[in-house]
Amino acid sequence: MQAYTSFARVYDTFMDNVPYEQWGEYVCGLLEEYHIRDTLVLELGCGTGSLTEYLAGRGYDMIGIDNSPDMLEIAMEKKRSSGRDILYLMQDMREFELYGTVAAVVSVCDSINYITSEDELRQVFSLVNNYLDPGGLFLFDLNTVYKYEQLLGDCVIAENREECSFIWENSYFPEEEVNEYDLTIFMREEGGLYRKYEETHFQKAYRLTVIRRLLEEAGMEFVAAYDAFTKEAPKEDSERIYVLAREKGKQRK
């Protein structure tokens, strides 16, 4: 799982079409449905901290984990600006460590898709289960097989802004169910010249049957799956789904 490097500097610019407030409202609604309010929550793959800040603003005590120092640097700038008490940790979600347990773990914006092997994903789920309070909630989203196969695979996306531009080339490998992203970024620097940066990322598509099996093998209880931002079951053409699971095994005090 590669960390964002140069792309971190323009990530928020090109993600300004993402309705983080809507995403945050949806996540908060699901957390509150399971009576998780005003308590300690961990976000895995927090990136530049946009959702972390939103949840902190809604009263949650937030911990954010990401393995990209460049993304976390921007998250820290947001923290200094907002004055919110958020703890950021630079860790790989495949081997993260906390000092104690949390009431919920959330992971959005397809961070889980960056885990490209079932064994590693099972390990992530096991760690989540370990660091959740008894009966604690795990809430995460996934890009679907349909999205990679029908919408992203072998597609080129380009966007041009005044200060930066990018070309995003996708190659989907159906046998492995892995999507390769080749990112070419042009960033304007002092003097008006543009510098070129290149990065390659990989995401894996997971079918819901596999996710459910891996959660259960990790000791968790599968609770539900929804078509993104609804309470409806995933459809054949769902592009993003949300999965809810619970900690299982710890004794309540």
Please describe what this structure looks like.
Helix 2 (20-33) packs across helix 3 (50-57) and helix 5 (118-131) crosses helix 7 (208-217). This protein has two domains: 6-143 and 206-246, Vaccinia Virus protein VP39 (Rossmann fold); 147-204, Single Sheet (N-terminal domain of TfIIb), CATH 2.20.25. The model has no long low-confidence stretch (mean pLDDT 91). It has helices at 11-14, 20-33, 50-57, 69-82, 118-131, 145-152, 208-217; strands at 40-44, 61-66, 87-90, 102-107, 132-143, 156-160, 164-173, 178-188, 194-204, 221-227, 240-246. The strands form two sheets. Strands 3-2-1-4-5-11-10 form a seven-stranded mixed beta sheet, sandwiched between helices. It has a four-stranded antiparallel beta sheet with strand order 6-7-8-9. It is of the alpha/beta class and 253 residues long. Helix content is 28%, strand content 33%. The radius of gyration is 18 Å and the shape is globular. The protein has seven helices and eleven strands. Residues 41-136 form the Methyltransferase domain. Keywords: Methyltransferase, Transferase.
